[in-house]
Automatic annotation (TrEMBL), chain A:
Protein name: Quinol:cytochrome c oxidoreductase quinone-binding subunit 2
Record flagged with keyword Protease: no
Keywords from the named record: Membrane, Transmembrane, Transmembrane helix
Transmembrane segments: 24-46, 66-90, 102-127, 167-186, 211-231, 243-266, 286-308, 328-346, 355-375, 387-410
UniProtKB/TrEMBL annotation, chain B:
Keywords on record: Membrane, Transmembrane, Transmembrane helix
InterPro entries associated with the record: ActD
Protein name, as recorded: Quinol:cytochrome c oxidoreductase membrane protein
Pfam family, one: ActD
High-level lineage: Bacteria, Pseudomonadati, Bacteroidota, Cytophagia, Cytophagales
Domain of life of the source: Bacteria
Bilayer-spanning residue ranges: 57-76, 96-120
C-alpha cells in the first residue's frame, strides 16, 4: 500500500533460543544419531552388500560409506552456510532495501562456517584414499603398473610445490585459505553490523558495501575452485567446465530455502513483524528463479556431454544413469529440484503464502542434498552406495547440528539491523 | 444517456491527494471509469479495486502451446517424416529437442503475451486513442467518471464529491 502511517516496530527484538526449541532440535539430533548408528551396525555386519568378488577393485569397507556421507554433508552444509553470507553481501552490493529486516537471518548461517571448515579438514585426513582416488601415490609413479598419465598431468593442482603423490599441500592450502577468508569476511560483516547498531549513520553501510564487493570477487573464484577441489576431484579423470557454477547454483537454492524457512520459523514465533507477504514473495521468486537456473546448468552440462558423446566425458553420466542404485535418483533429482518448484511456485499466490513455501523449501533442501549425493557417492562407493539408514541419519545429525549452531548464533545479536539506513524503505516494500 | 460518451473529469495536482480522492469517490458510491496519470502511481490499481491481471494465464497457455508445437515439430520431422541419425543418437533424441522446445516456449509466451496485451489494451496500430485531457501526459492526474454509468446519482452531487476530494478543476468531456 502506498500510504501507511508512521510505523512503530520493535527494533530491539532478539531471538530467544528457548530450551523447548533446543530440546526439539536435540531430539532430532539424537534420532538421527540412532538411525546413523543402526546404519553403521547394519553395514558392519554385512548389510546386504557383497564385499567379495569386485573385479579388480579393492574390498569395500563399511566406513567408506560413512566417510562419503560425512563428505556429502560437509559440502552441502558448507554451501548453505556460505550462501547465507553471500546473499547478505549481495544485498549490499545491489543496494537492496527490501531485504533489510532479513539481513541478520542471512548472516547467521555463517556461524556454521568455522565448524564446517574443521569438519572438512578432519574428514579429508580421515578418509583420504577412501574418498579421493588421486591421493594414491602409485598413480604418479611411472614405474608402477597402476601409473595414470591423465591424473599425473593434473597432479600439480593438488600437490604443488611438493612432489606429486606425497602431501597434497596445494589442495590443503586452498581449503584452509577459503574457509579462513570466508570466516574472516563473515566476522568483518558482523563487526561492521555491530558498530552500525551501536553508533548508527550511513558510513557503516558504505563500508559494508566495499567489503561486500571484495567478498563477492573472492567468492566468485573460491566457490568455483572449491567445487572442483571438493566435488569434481572425486571423479578425477572427468572434468566439466561449468561444474563450479553447477555446484554454486545447487548451494544457492539450498541456501535460499534455508533462509526462507528460518524467516518463516521466526515469523511463526512472533519475531520480524515488519516482514510481510511482499518480502516472502521476493524470497519465493529467488527460489523459483534459481531453481530454473540450477536446471539450466544441470541440463547444459548433461546435453553437451550427451551430444558430444566423448567417452571420457560421458562416463560420468553412464556411471549414474545405468546404475540400479543411482539411476532412479537422477530423475528424482530433476523432479524435486525442477518440476516441483517450477510448477508449484509459478503462481503469485504460492510465493506469497508461507504454507506453500515451507513445503517447497523443505522438499528442495532434501532435493539438493540428493544432488550432492549424486555428485559424491557414485565416484566413491560405486554400486555399494545408495540412500539407506546411514544417509538419513547423517543428514539429520548434520542438519540439527547446523540448526543448533545457527540459531545459537542468531540469539547472540539483535535480530534486526536497527540503524540500517534502508530499514524504513523495507517496511514499505510492496510488489 | 449513452454509455462511454459523456464524462465528468476531475483534475488532480498531487498523487497522494489523488489516491485519497479515489478512495473517497468510490466510498461515496461513484463508479470511476478510469484514471489517467502522466506516470505510474504505486498503489493506484489497489485503491481503484482493479482485479489482478490475467495476462500470466495467457503467457502460460501460449508457453504450453510453444512447447507442444516445438516437440510435435521435432518428433514429426526427426523421427517420422524423414528419420535421420545424427551423432549416433536415436531417431527420437528427446534431450536434443529440449533447447528448441525451450526457445519456442519462450518465444510464443512472449509473443502471445504482447499480442494479448495489445488487444486487451486496445493498442492496435489503427486504434484512435481518446484524449480526455491532454494535460494527463504532462502534469495533471485526470479522473474520468462516466455519467451514464452513474445515472443513479445527481450530477451536482458527483461534482461536489470531486471538489471536496481535492480536485482543482472539474470539467465535462464528451466524445462523438
Amino acid at each position: 500500500m502506498a500510504h501507511h502511517g508512521e510505523q512503530h516496530y520493535n527494533l530491539e527484538q532478539r531471538f530467544d533460543f528457548t530450551a523447548a526449541t533446543k530440546k526439539s532440535i536435540m531430539t532430532v539430533l539424537v534420532i538421527g544419531a540412532v538411525i546413523l548408528g543402526l546404519g553403521i551396525v547394519l553395514a558392519m555386519t554385512g548389510g546386504g552388500h557383497d564385499e567379495v568378488g569386485e573385479a579388480g577393485g579393492h574390498a569395500f569397507h563399511w566406513y567408506e560409506r560413512l566417510y562419503a556421507n560425512l563428505w556429502i554433508n560437509n559440502v552441502y552444509f558448507t554451501g548453505i552456510a556460505i550462501v547465507g553470507v553471500f546473499f547478505f553481501a549481495i544485498q549490499y552490493a545491489a543496494q537492496a532495501g527490501w531485504s533489510t529486516p532479513l539481513l541478520r537471518v542471512m548472516l547467521s548461517f555463517g556461524y556454521w562456517l568455522p565448524f564446517a571448515g574443521i569438519l572438512m579438514l578432519a574428514t579429508f585426513f580421515l578418509a583420504n584414499h577412501d574418498l579421493f582416488h588421486w591421493t594414491h601415490s602409485y598413480l604418479f609413479d611411472k614405474n608402477d603398473p597402476q601409473y595414470d598419465s591423465i591424473i599425473d598431468g593434473k597432479g600439480a593442482f593438488f600437490f604443488w610445490p611438493m612432489a606429486k603423490g606425497t602431501f597434497p599441500i596445494f589442495f590443503i592450502v586452498r581449503m584452509v585459505l577459503f574457509f579462513g577468508l570466508w570466516v574472516f569476511f563473515f566476522k568483518k560483516f558482523q563487526q561492521i553490523s555491530d558498530q552500525e547498531d551501536q553508533l548508527g549513520g550511513n558510513s557503516y553501510w558504505i563500508k559494508m558495501r566495499s567489503w561486500s564487493a571484495f567478498f563477492l570477487i573472492f567468492f566468485a573464484v573460491s566457490s568455483s575452485i572449491s567445487a572442483w577441489d571438493w566435488v569434481m576431484s572425486i571423479d578425477t579423470h572427468w572434468f566439466s567446465t561449468l561444474f563450479g557454477w553447477y555446484v554454486f547454483s545447487s548451494w544457492f537454492v539450498a541456501g535460499l530455502c534455508a533462509i526462507t524457512l528460518l524467516t518463516i520459523f521466526l515469523k511463526g514465533k512472533g519475531y520480524l513483524e515488519m516482514v510481510n507477504q511482499n518480502h516472502i514473495h521476493d524470497m519465493g521468486k529467488f527460489i523459483f528463479g534459481f531453481s530454473i537456473f540450477w536446471t539450466y546448468l544441470w541440463f547444459s552440462q548433461f546435453l553437451l556431454i550427451y551430444y558430444a558423446n566423448i567417452p571420457e566425458e560421458s562416463v560420468y553420466f553412464i556411471e549414474r544413469l545405468t546404475s540400479d542404485v543411482y539411476g532412479p535418483f537422477i530423475f528424482v533429482n530433476i523432479g524435486l529440484n525442477f518440476f516441483l518448484p517450477f510448477l508449484v511456485l509459478m503462481t503469485r499466490d504460492a510465493k506469497r503464502h508461507g504454507v506453500f513455501l515451507k513445503l517447497v523449501c523443505s522438499i528442495l533442501l532434501v532435493g539438493h542434498w540428493i544432488d550432492f549425493f549424486l555428485m559424491v557417492q557414485p565416484g566413491t562407493l560405486g554400486h555399494n552406495g545408495g540412500i539407506g539408514l546411514m544417509e538419513v541419519g547423517m543428514f539429520l545429525v548434520y542438519g540439527s547440528a547446523v540448526a543448533l549452531v545457527v540459531l545459537g548464533g542468531l540469539a547472540k545479536k539483535n535480530l534486526i539491523a536497527k540503524n540500517h539506513p534502508m530499514l524504513e524503505e523495507s517496511y514499505h516494500h510492496h510488489i | 444517456m449513452e454509455r462511454d460518451t459523456h464524462f465528468i473529469l476531475g483534475v488532480y495536482e498531487d498523487e497522494d491527494v489523488l489516491l485519497h480522492a479515489v478512495e473517497k469517490v468510490r466510498s461515496n458510491g461513484v463508479k470511476i471509469h478510469e484514471v489517467y496519470t502522466p506516470y505510474p502511481i504505486h498503489g493506484l490499481e489497489v485503491v481503484l479495486g482493479y482485479k489482478r491481471s490475467r495476462l500470466p494465464i495467457a503467457a502460460f497457455l501460449f508457453g504450453m502451446l510453444g512447447t507442444t508445437l516445438a516437440m510435435t515439430m521435432q518428433f514429426y520431422m526427426m523421427s517420422f517424416d524423414w528419420p535421420m541419425i545424427i551423432g549416433g543418437k536415436d531417431y527420437a533424441a528427446f534431450p536434443a529437442f529440449i533447447p528448441v522446445g525451450f526457445e519456442m516456449t519462450v518465444l510464443l509466451a512472449a509473443f502471445g503475451m504482447v499480442g494479448v496485451f495489445m488487444i486487451s489494451s486496445n493498442l492496435k496500430p489503427w486504434a484512435q486513442p481518446r484524449i480526455f485531457d491532454i494535460r494527463s501526459t504532462d502534469d495533471k492526474h485526470i479522473m474520468a467518471i462516466d455519467i451514464a454509468n452513474n445515472s443513479a446519482m445527481d450530477l451536482e452531487k458527483i461534482k461536489e464529491i470531486l471538489k471536496s476530494s481535492g480536485a482543482t478543476e472539474i470539467n465535462n468531456k464528451s466524445f462523438e
